[in-house]
Design goal:
The complex is a heterotetramer of chains A (232), B (314), C (550) and D (145). Chain A is mainly α and 232 residues long. Chain A has one domain: Four Helix Bundle (Hemerythrin (Met), subunit A), CATH 1.20.120. Chain A has 6 helices and 1 strand, in the order βαααααα. Chain B has 3 domains: 75 residues, Helix Hairpins, CATH 1.10.287; 111 residues, Immunoglobulin-like, CATH 2.60.40.420; 100 residues, Cytochrome c-like domain (Cytochrome Bc1 Complex, Chain D, domain 2, Orthogonal Bundle), CATH 1.10.760.10. Chain B has 7 helices and 12 strands. In chain B, the strands form 3 sheets. A 5-stranded mixed sheet of chain B has the order 3-2-1-5-8, with no helix packed on it. A 5-stranded mixed sheet of chain B has the order 4-10-9-6-7. In chain B, strands 11-12 form a two-stranded antiparallel ribbon. In chain B, α2 runs antiparallel to α3. Among the domains of chain D are: 65 residues; 28 residues. Chain D has 4 helices and no strands. In chain D, α2 runs antiparallel to α3. Chain D is flat, with a radius of gyration of 26 Å. The N terminus and C terminus of chain D are likely disordered. Classes of the chains: A mainly alpha (232), B alpha+beta (314), C mainly alpha (550), D mainly alpha (145). At the B-C interface, α2, α3, β7 and β9 of B face α3, α8, α9, α10 and α11 of C.
C-alpha cells in the first residue's frame, strides 16, 4: 500500500489546546482555524454563485438595453434619482456598521457587536421603507412589469422596451430586496446569539459570514444604482 | 466508395451538397482511422498485457515528448478541420445578390411560400433549376426550422425576425423539405415537396399563380375571402353593408347599380371582372374614382374566387 | 472464474469491524436525519437509480413506439403525438436533471471523495443533507408535474414554445430550479472539502484523479448552475408576467433564451462527463496494475475541460439565428475541447500499455467506455465542423452523438464505478459472471440502439419526430431491438447487485488492489471512516513493489 | 493556544480607522457618480458609471470583505465569478452586436404575422406601410442598434 497511518488524536493534532472542547468544533475538522477557513471558503463560493445568479439578470438587462436603448432611457426617467442615491448611502453605511460589528465580535466587545448589528438592521429597514415608497408610486402609475404595464401618457407607452425596462427593474430590485429581507432575518438571528454572548475571539464565524453576505448585497446595489437611475 | 456515401447521405440536390458530402466523407474516414487506432490499441493492449501473476509493470509516470506530440498534432488537425468546415460554410452563409427570393412564413404546422410576383403556395415549393434561390423566413408562432436534406441546408425560423437560407438546385425532381426544430404536436407532419423544375415547367407554374388555390377548388368563395383580405379590397369595400370608400359588397350581387353618368348596370360576372381590371370604366354614383387597376395582379383563379365570394354575400 | 486479486488485497488480517456506518445506528430516522456523507451518498444512489429506472422506462417506451412510422403496434396506436412529445420530454428531463447530473458526484462522489482524501466527512455535512433534500423536493415536484399532465416542451424549454404551450410547465421549471440548487450546494461542498480536508501530506498533485475530476465538475456546478437558476426564473416569469425578455410577441428575443440556457447546459455536459472520466481514471490504473501515465496532464486536462466548457456553448446554435460571426468564433473554440479529451484517451491507453490487465466487471466497463467515448468524441468533430453541422444538427445524428457521450460514456462509467466501489459501500461482492454477461449485453445493446441513429441522422431524419418516412423504418427497428438488449443488460445488473445484498458480508477491504485511501479502511467503512488518520506517503497509482521498510 | 494566537495575528487587520476611510471614499464616489450623470457624455456616461461602480465594489471587497488580508483563494473565487460572468456577457454581446438584419426585398407583399389575440405591435417585424412598397421604413429589432 502506498500509505501508512500515523497516530493522531481523533479530534485533531496540533494546536489542540483548551478550546479543543469548544462546543462549536465539528469532529471532522482538525482545528478551529481550519473550520473557520473552510466556512469562509464555502461562503466565498456561495458569493460567486450569487454573482452569477444576479449576473444572469445583468446580462438580460444589457441585451435588452442594447435592443431598446431609447425606450430604456426614457423609462428610467420615471425613477427618482434622489431615492436611489439615498438608498445607496444607506446601504453603504449599513456595510460600514456591519464591518464594525464583525470587528467588535472578533475583539470580544459584546455590547458593541449587538449595537452595530442593530444599526445595520435599522439601515436595512430604512432601505426597505424607501423601496416601499418607490414601488407604491410605480404601482399607482401603472409602471408595472411585462403584461401588467398600463401607464398612460408616455410618448412610447405600451411599447415593448418600456414594459421590459420595468420588468427588469422589478426583477432585479425585487431579487435584491428579497436578499435584504433574508439579510434582516439572519442579522436578527445573529444579533440574538450575540446578545447571549455566543461569540468571542475564538468563535465568531457566523458574524463574519453574515458580514460577507451583507457586503455582497451592498455590492450588487452599487451596480444596480447607476444602471437603473443614472443611464443616459 | 460512392455506395457508402449514397447510403449515409440523402441524394445530392446541388453542387453545395456534393461539397458538404466531400467534407463529411473526409471526416468519416479520418474518424474511422482514429477510431480503429484507439479501439485497436485498447484491444491489442488488453490481449498482449493480459493478467499474468507476478508480472511487474513499469513505473512510467509520463513522457513529455510523447505528450507534447499528442497535444500538438490533434490541435493542428483540429485547426485544419475548422478551416475546412468554415470554407464550405461561408458558401452557405452568404447568398448571392441576384438570388431569386421566396418568402417563407412558418406556423403550426404548415409552410406558406410567396414568390416575387405574388404567387403563393402552401407546403410546396417550385424553383427553377440552376438558379440561386434565397428563402427569407419568419414564423408566426414558435421557432421552426427549414431543412432541405437534399440541399444540405437548414436554418431556424424565428418569430419576430427574418432569417435566410439559400441554395442553387441542380437536380430536377422532387426533394423533401421538413421542419427540424421541435414545434409541438404536428412537428413531424410539417413537411412538403420542393420541386426543381425546368424553365418551361416553372413558367407554367407561375402562370397559374401557384397551387394554393387548388385546396379551395370546391369552395371558391373561401378562396375569394382570402383574396379579399390579402389584396387590400377590405380597405375600401365592406362586406357588412357599412359605407366605406367603395361600395359595400353585401347584397350587391345581381343588383342594379346607378352610375355617376346616370346609367344603371347589372352587377354580374362581366361587370365585376371589369371593375377589378379597369376600375375607371364605370363609377358607381356617390363614389370617387380612386380604385387602382388590378390588371396583371389578379390571376383568373383569384378573380373567380372573388366573384364567388361576392356571390356568397347575400 | 475467481477474482484475479493482486498481492496485498487485504490489509493484514484485520477482522471486519462489528460496527460500520450501515449498522452504527438503526431506524429510518437515523437515515433521514444523517449527516454522514456515506449514508447521504447511499440515499442519493437509491434516488438517482430510481430516476434512472423511470427515465429508462420512458426510453423503452419511445423506442417501442418508434418501431413503426405510424406508431401502430398490433393494430393499436401505442402513443399519440401529444403523448409522444410528453414522453420524450420526461425522458430527457428526468435523465438530465434527476439522474446524470447528480449521478456520479452526488452518489459515488459523496461516498468516495472524503474517503479518498482521508477525511472524516465533507466540509459541510449538514449542507450535504440539505442538498439531498433539495434533490428530493425537486424530484417530487417533477413527479407531481408529471401526474398533472406532464410537459411537452422538450428538456430544453425553448421559448416561445415553452411560454405558450399548456401543461404544468411552471411547476416543472421550479422543480428543475430546485434541482439546480441541490447541484450547486454539492459542488460547493466538494470544493471546500478538497481545499481544506485533504489528509496530512496530500498535496494537490497527490490527489487521486477521481478527486480532480469531481473538483473540476464542482467548479462548473458552482459557476454555471446559478445561471440555469436565473434562466428558469426568467422563464417562469415570462409565462406568468410576460416580462418580455424571451418571447418575441412581448418584445423579447428567443435566441437570447438559448444563450442563457446553453451557458449552463453546455458546461452541464461536462458536469456529466468529467466524473465519468474521473472514474475511468481510477479503474484503468487499478486493473492494469500500473501507474497512471501522464498524471499531471490528466489533472490539467480535467480542469481545462471544465474551463473550456464555458466558452463553447454557441455550438448548439449554429443554425439558431445567432450572428454569423458568433457562429464562426464558437466553432473555432469548440475544437479546443478535442485537445484535453484526446489527451485523456491517449493517457488511458498509455496506462494500459505494458500493464498487467485483468478483466473484472469494472474494467470491462472501462474498456467499453474507451470505445464508446471514442465514438462519441469523434462524431463530435462532425458537429463542430460548420459545413457538416448545418446538415446534421437537429437530426438523429445529434441524438446518437450525445447518447454516446452521456449514456455510452457517463452512464457506463457510472455503472463501472458502482461495481468498483460496491464492495466498499456494501461489504459484499456481486456475482462476477453475471457482471460480465450484463456488461456484454449493455455494450451490444447500446451500440445497436444508437449506432444506427448516426445513419438515421445523416440520412436526414430530424429529431423529436413522431411520424417518419417509411424509408427510415429498418434502422428504427434495429435501434428498438437494441434498446431491449440494453434494457435486459441493465435489468440483470440491478438483479445481481440487489441479490448480493442478501448474502453475508464477504468483501475484503481492498478487493482490487487499489492504491487510493478509500481502500485503507474496512469494507464497509466505520462511521468516521478511518480508525486512524491516514497520511499520504506515496503517490496514488504507485504499483512499484513496496520496499520492505516497515 | 498558539494556533489561535496566530489565527488572530493573521486576522488582525482593518480597524475602525481604515473602515471609516473606506466609507468616506465610497460616499464621495457615490456623489461623483451622481454628479457625472448630470453631464451628458453620450455613451460615455454608462462607461463612467460602471467604472466608478467597479471601484466602489473593489473597495468593498478589499476592505469591508477583508480580501486585502485574506487568503488569496477567496479573492480568486470571487474573481472567478466575475470572469465567468464576463464570458457570459462578452459572447452574448458578440452575438447581439454582429447580427445581420435580413429583410425581404419585397416587404409589401408580406402580411404582418400577427397572431390572433396578441396586442398591437406585438411583433418587432415591421408593419409594412401600404404606400411605401419595397421601402422597409421600420427595420426589425435585429437592425436596431
Amino acid at each position: 500500500m502506498s500509505t501508512t497511518s500515523i497516530d493522531l488524536p481523533s479530534h485533531g493534532g496540533h494546536g489542540h489546546g483548551a478550546h479543543g472542547d469548544d462546543p462549536h468544533h465539528q469532529h471532522h475538522f482538525t482545528t478551529m482555524e481550519q473550520q473557520f477557513d473552510t466556512a469562509k471558503l464555502g461562503m466565498w463560493l456561495f458569493i460567486a454563485t450569487e454573482i452569477l445568479l444576479f449576473g444572469g439578470l445583468f446580462v438580460g438587462f444589457g441585451m435588452m438595453q442594447n435592443r431598446y436603448p431609447r425606450e430604456f432611457v426614457e423609462a428610467h426617467e420615471h425613477l427618482v434619482r434622489w431615492q436611489g442615491a439615498l438608498n445607496t448611502v444607506v446601504l453603504l453605511i449599513s456595510s460600514f456598521t456591519m464591518v464594525l460589528a464583525v470587528e467588535s465580535a472578533k475583539t470580544n466587545k459584546r455590547a458593541k457587536t449587538v449595537g452595530f448589528l442593530a444599526l445595520t438592521i435599522v439601515c436595512a429597514c430604512i432601505f426597505l421603507v424607501v423601496k416601499y415608497f418607490e414601488y407604491s408610486h410605480k404601482f399607482e402609475e401603472g409602471w408595472l412589469p411585462g403584461k401588467y404595464y398600463h401607464a398612460v401618457g408616455d410618448s412610447i407607452a405600451g411599447s415593448h422596451g418600456y414594459a421590459t425596462f420595468f420588468s427588469f427593474y422589478f426583477m432585479m430590485t425585487g431579487l435584491h430586496g428579497i436578499h435584504i429581507v433574508v439579510g434582516i432575518a439572519i442579522l436578527t438571528w445573529i444579533l440574538l446569539r450575540a446578545k447571549k454572548g455566543e461569540f468571542s475571539s475564538t468563535y465568531y464565524t457566523p458574524v463574519e459570514l453574515v458580514g460577507l453576505y451583507w457586503h455582497i448585497v451592498d455590492m450588487i446595489w452599487i451596480y444596480l444604482f447607476p444602471l437603473y437611475y443614472l443611464i443616459q | 466508395m460512392d455506395w457508402l456515401r449514397n447510403w449515409m447521405m440523402p441524394p445530392q440536390g446541388s453542387a453545395y451538397a456534393a461539397e458538404v458530402d466531400f467534407t463529411y466523407m473526409g471526416l468519416f474516414w479520418l474518424c474511422a482511422v482514429m477510431f480503429i487506432g484507439i479501439a485497436g490499441a485498447a484491444a491489442w493492449f488488453s490481449w498482449r498485457y493480459r493478467f499474468r501473476p507476478g508480472r511487474v509493470t513499469p513505473h512510467d509516470t509520463h513522457n513529455t515528448k510523447l505528450e507534447v506530440i499528442w497535444t500538438v498534432l490533434p490541435l493542428m488537425l483540429c485547426i485544419g478541420i475548422f478551416f475546412w468546415g468554415l470554407n464550405g460554410w461561408l458558401k452557405y452563409a452568404v447568398a448571392p445578390g441576384d438570388a431569386m427570393e421566396i418568402q417563407v412564413t412558418a406556423k403550426k404546422w404548415l409552410w406558406q411560400f410567396e414568390y416575387p410576383d405574388g404567387t403563393r403556395t402552401v407546403n410546396e415549393i417550385h424553383v427553377p433549376a440552376h438558379k440561386a434561390v434565397k428563402f427569407v423566413m419568419t414564423s408566426e408562432d414558435v421557432i421552426h426550422d427549414f431543412f432541405v436534406p437534399d440541399m444540405r441546408v437548414k436554418h431556424d425560423i424565428i418569430p419576430g425576425r427574418y432569417t435566410e437560407v439559400w441554395f442553387t438546385p441542380t437536380v430536377l425532381g422532387k426533394h423533401r423539405f421538413t421542419c427540424a426544430e421541435y414545434c409541438g404536436k404536428g412537428h413531424s407532419d410539417m413537411h412538403g415537396d420542393l420541386s426543381v423544375d425546368n424553365d418551361a415547367d416553372y413558367a407554367k407554374f407561375l402562370e397559374t399563380g401557384g397551387t394554393e388555390w387548388e385546396q379551395y377548388k370546391d369552395h371558391m368563395d373561401q378562396w375569394g375571402k382570402i383574396q379579399y383580405e390579402r389584396n387590400g379590397c377590405s380597405t375600401c369595400h365592406s362586406v357588412d353593408g357599412s359605407k366605406s370608400k367603395g361600395p359595400s359588397w353585401k347584397g350587391i350581387w345581381h343588383k342594379m347599380e346607378e352610375l355617376n353618368n346616370g346609367t344603371t348596370v347589372l352587377v354580374d360576372e362581366a361587370y365585376v371582372r371589369e371593375s377589378m381590371l379597369y376600375p375607371q370604366a364605370k363609377i358607381v354614383k356617390g363614389f370617387e374614382p380612386i380604385m387602382p387597376s388590378f390588371n396583371n395582379l389578379l390571376r383568373d383563379n383569384q378573380i373567380k374566387g372573388l366573384i364567388a365570394y361576392i356571390q356568397s354575400l347575400q | 472464474m475467481e477474482h484475479a486479486l493482486s498481492p496485498g488485497a487485504r490489509i493484514g488480517d484485520r477482522p471486519r469491524p462489528a460496527v460500520n456506518y450501515l449498522n452504527a445506528s438503526k431506524g429510518i430516522m437515523s437515515w433521514l436525519g444523517t449527516v454522514d456523507h456515506k449514508r447521504i451518498g447511499i440515499m442519493y444512489l437509491v434516488g438517482v437509480l430510481t430516476a434512472f429506472l423511470m427515465g429508462g422506462c420512458f426510453a423503452l417506451l419511445i423506442r417501442l413506439s418508434l418501431l413503426t412510422p405510424t406508431h401502430m403496434l398490433f393494430g393499436k396506436v401505442l402513443l399519440t403525438a401529444e403523448q409522444y412529445n410528453r414522453v420524450f420530454t420526461l425522458h430527457g428531463a428526468i435523465m438530465v436533471f434527476l439522474f446524470i447530473i447528480p449521478a456520479i458526484p452526488a452518489s459515488l462522489g459523496n461516498f468516495v471523495l472524503p474517503l479518498m482524501l482521508g477525511a472524516k466527512d465533507v466540509a459541510f455535512p449538514r449542507l450535504n443533507l440539505f442538498s439531498f433534500y433539495l434533490w428530493l423536493t425537486g424530484a417530487i415536484m417533477a413527479i407531481v408535474a408529471m401526474v398533472l399532465g406532464a410537459v411537452d416542451t422538450g428538456w430544453t424549454f425553448y421559448t416561445p414554445y415553452s411560454t405558450t404551450t399548456d401543461g404544468p410547465v411552471t411547476l416543472m421549471i421550479l422543480a428543475v430550479f430546485i434541482l439546480g440548487f441541490s447541484s450547486i450546494f454539492t459542488g460547493l461542498n466538494f470544493i471546500a472539502t478538497v481545499h481544506k480536508l485533504r489528509a496530512p501530506g496530500m498535496g494537490w498533485f497527490d490527489m487521486p484523479l477521481f478527486i480532480w475530476g469531481i473538483y473540476a465538475t464542482a467548479v462548473i456546478q458552482v459557476m454555471a448552475t446559478p445561471v440555469l437558476g436565473i434562466t428558469l426564473v426568467l422563464l417562469a416569469l415570462e409565462r406568468s408576467f410576460g416580462i418580455g425578455i424571451f418571447d418575441p410577441k412581448l418584445g423579447g428575443d428567443p435566441v437570447l433564451f438559448q444563450h442563457f440556457f446553453w451557458f449552463y447546459s453546455h458546461p452541464a455536459v461536462y458536469i456529466m462527463i468529467l466524473p465519468g472520466m474521473a472514474i475511468i481514471s481510477e479503474l484503468i490504473p487499478t486493473f492494469s496494475r500500473k501507474t497512471m501515465f501522464g498524471y499531471r496532464a490528466m489533472a490539467y486536462a480535467s480542469v481545462s475541460l471544465a474551463l473550456v466548457s464555458f466558452i463553447v456553448w454557441g455550438h448548439h446554435m449554429f443554425v439558431a439565428g445567432q450572428s454569423q460571426l458568433a457562429t464562426v468564433v464558437f466553432s473555432a473554440l469548440t475544437f479546443l475541447v478535442a485537445i484535453p479529451s484526446g489527451i485523456k484517451v491517449f493517457n488511458w491507453l498509455g496506462t494500459m500499455y505494458q500493464g498487467n490487465i485483468s478483466f473484472e466487471t469494472p474494467m470491462l466497463y472501462a474498456i467499453s467506455f474507451l470505445i464508446l467515448f471514442a465514438i462519441g468524441g469523434l462524431t463530435g468533430i462532425f458537429l463542430g465542423t460548420l459545413s457538416t453541422d448545418v446538415h446534421l444538427t437537429d437530426t438523429y445524428f445529434v441524438v446518437a452523438h450525445f447518447h454516446y457521450v452521456m449514456m455510452g460514456s457517463t452512464v457506463i462509467a457510472f455503472i463501472g464505478g458502482l461495481h468498483y466501489w460496491w464492495p466498499k459501500m456494501t461489504g459484499r461482492m456481486y456475482n462476477e459472471n453475471w457482471g460480465r454477461i450484463a456488461c456484454g449485453l449493455v455494450f451490444i445493446g447500446f451500440n445497436m440502439t444508437f449506432f444506427t441513429q448516426f445513419f438515421l441522422g445523416s440520412q436526414g431524419m430530424p429529431r423529436r419526430y413522431y411520424n417518419y418516412p417509411d424509408q427510415f423504418q429498418h434502422l428504427h427497428a434495429v435501434s428498438t431491438v437494441g434498446s431491449w438488449i440494453l434494457g435486459l443488460g441493465l435489468f440483470i445488473t440491478l438483479a445481481y447487485l440487489l441479490a448480493s445484498l442478501r448474502k453475508p458480508m464477504d468483501a475484503p477491504d481492498n478487493p482490487w488492489g487499489g492504491t487510493t485511501m478509500e481502500w485503507l479502511t474496512s469494507s464497509p467503512p466505520i462511521e468516521h471512516n478511518f480508525e486512524e488518520q491516514p497520511v499520504l506517503e506515496r503517490e496514488p497509482y504507485d504499483y512499484r513493489p513496496v520496499v520492505a521498510s516497515k | 493556544m498558539s494556533t489561535h494566537t496566530e489565527t488572530h495575528d493573521e486576522h488582525a487587520h482593518g480597524g475602525v480607522a481604515i473602515y471609516t476611510r473606506t466609507l468616506i471614499a465610497l460616499l464621495i464616489l457615490t456623489a461623483v457618480t451622481v454628479g457625472a450623470a448630470y453631464i451628458n457624455l453620450g455613451s460615455g456616461n454608462i462607461v463612467i458609471a460602471l467604472f466608478i461602480a467597479t471601484i466602489k465594489a473593489i473597495l468593498v471587497a478589499l476592505f469591508f470583505m477583508h480580501l486585502r488580508w485574506d487568503r488569496p483563494m477567496n479573492g480568486l473565487i470571487a474573481m472567478a465569478g466575475f470572469v465567468f460572468l464576463g464570458i457570459f456577457i462578452g459572447f452574448c454581446l458578440l452575438d447581439f452586436s454582429s447580427r445581420n438584419a435580413f429583410l425581404p426585398t419585397n416587404l409589401h407583399h408580406t402580411e404582418v404575422p400577427l397572431a390572433p389575440g396578441s396586442a398591437p405591435q406585438a411583433y418587432t417585424v415591421p408593419v409594412p406601410e401600404p404606400a411605401a412598397a419595397g421601402a422597409p421604413a421600420a427595420a426589425p429589432a435585429a437592425e436596431k442598434k
